[in-house]
Amino acid sequence: DIQVTQSPSSLSASVGDRVTITCRASPSIKNYLNWYQQKPGEAPKLLIYAASNLQSGVPSRFSGSGFGTDFTLTISSLQSEDFATYYCQQTSSAPMTFGGGTKVEIK
Amino acid sequence: QVTLRESGPALVKPTQTLTLTCSFSGFSLSTSGMSVNWIRQPPGKALEWLARIDWDNDKYYSTSLRTRLTISKDTSKNQVVLTMTNMDPVDTATYYCARLHYDINSANRWLDPWGQGSLVTVSS
Asked: What is the tens place of the pLDDT at every residue in B45-96?
């Protein structure tokens, strides 16, 4: 199985901060990497697909980058509605594993 | 508009078999490239991918759970069914189904949309 390691597991940030979350895959998965946002009590929601493509309706402050084994989700200016848990997922091959999640909390 | 909805028992006893149904609309599982996946999330924990069934009836399972899982589809009813045998309290979780979107140009796939989830508690 492809291993997906996400870091950090949690972080505290303030509104307006730039936030970066990383995901590392082993072995290489080209750009078969997606990012999801999950708020408490809700189902996950797609943010970024194919490593760097913004899903329709998602604010442009979210961006994704990376190829191969190292990927990044960036929130350029954190807003109050962005406090949530974020997951990466590889879809290079089944089983399509998720990262362990990053909980973004208010500082 | 694509929607998915999970249904099944809220409570099962240890050793019982869980059967969950994903009812969907807005797409057909007989269309080339379509796929439905199951994912679960124990309370306060991370997402765990469980299984996938494709339009051509190809099936894929979690490595650790493959001996306990069976996924099937009823194309005429727009439903996908997941069964999990020998349930244990550690299987207590919210179970989600989601469509796996497939981009034929890039071969990329992503889960969108998701159902609202179905909480299953395993307890005697």
From this structure: 999 999 999 999 999 999 999 999 999 999 999 999 999 999 999 999 999 9
The nearest CA of chain A is from the CA of B62 a distance in Å of 6
Is the predicted pLDDT of residue A69 greater than 90, yes or no?
A: yes
> Which residue in B109, B116, B118, B119 has the most chain A C-beta atoms within 10 A of its own C-beta, making it the best mutation to test that interface?
B109
Tell me the CA distances in angstroms from B10 to A27, B19, B33, B36, one per residue in order: 38, 11, 32, 22
* 8 A C-beta contact, residue A8 and residue A72: no
Mutate to test the interface with B, among A46, A87, A91 (most CBs of B within 10 A): A91
Output b/e per residue, A26-52; b: 16+ Cβ within 10 A. eeebbbbbbbbbbeeeebbbbbbbbbb
Segment A58-83 shows an average pLDDT of 97
- CA B61 to chain A, closest CA, distance in angstroms equals 6
